[in-house]
Write a structure and sequence with these properties.
single chain; 215 residues; alpha+beta; 3-stranded antiparallel sheet; 10 helices; 5 strands
Length: 215
């Protein structure tokens, strides 16, 4: 619930089917689970990525319209609507190299209180103990999570219409994001916003979409 944490972190659970004290995936996936308002989040993201202020509102409105077109539930933002099925949940599944877990993930109770019993360190708990269960907090450093050799992420949506339309939605979204993605200069500007300063040495501004594709 802390805004400073929400700017850089994610709450999660350490196992897909395990019980959890707050939001186990098997209980909340269909209807979704969230805390706090989404008002202004999209606009702030676009601003941080270098979109000119005069274009932010119009671009955000176009993105919401595109989401509605493909069946994505947008009721959490002003002007949005519920999806037809009423199943607004999504699941983000994250795979992170084992040796990086202790640097960017820690086991937690509700509200992010560290769970010292599972922090042995955490990578040891994941490797040796079962069943795996409990909440985690993830520091979502883009220097790690944007590198396909370090992390992989997969998204699943409960609404069947949007889940089927996702590839088309993403393709059209990339076209909409021309102010951010259209040129190397714009991509450099967006990268500085994402990384919070100069991008790391490994990052280069050419279009890398195909490099991250699954084989």
């Amino acid at each position: 619930h802390n805004n400073a944490f929400k700017a850089v972190g994610l709450c999660g659970t350490s196992a897909l089917l395990a019980p959890d004290s707050e939001a186990p995936a098997k209980s909340v996936f269909l209807m979704g689970y969230s805390v706090g308002s989404l008002k202004g989040v999209l606009e702030k993201l676009l601003e941080n990525c270098g979109v000119p202020k005069g274009k932010i509102f119009g671009l955000a409105k176009s993105i919401v319209s595109l989401a509605l077109k493909h069946g994505l539930d947008t009721c959490g933002i002003p002007g949005g609507k519920k999806c037809k099925s009423g199943r607004s949940g999504h699941m983000l599944q994250i795979f992170l190299r084992r040796e990086l877990c202790d640097a960017y993930v820690y086991p937690a109770f509700a509200f992010g209180v560290p769970d010292l019993a599972r922090n042995q360190p955490f990578s040891k708990y994941l490797a040796e103990h079962g069943p795996i269960e409990g909440q985690v907090r993830i520091t979502f450093n883009p220097d790690v999570f944007l590198r396909a050799t370090y992390a992989r992420m997969f998204t699943y949506s409960a609404d069947p219409t949007y889940h089927a339309n996702r590839p088309k939605f993403i393709k059209e979204l990339v076209d909409l994001l021309e102010p951010i993605l259209g040129t190397e200069e714009n991509r450099e500007k967006a990268a500085r916003g994402i990384f919070g300063g100069e991008p790391p040495e490994w990052w280069t501004p050419e279009d890398q979409s195909e490099l991250a594709a699954m084989p």
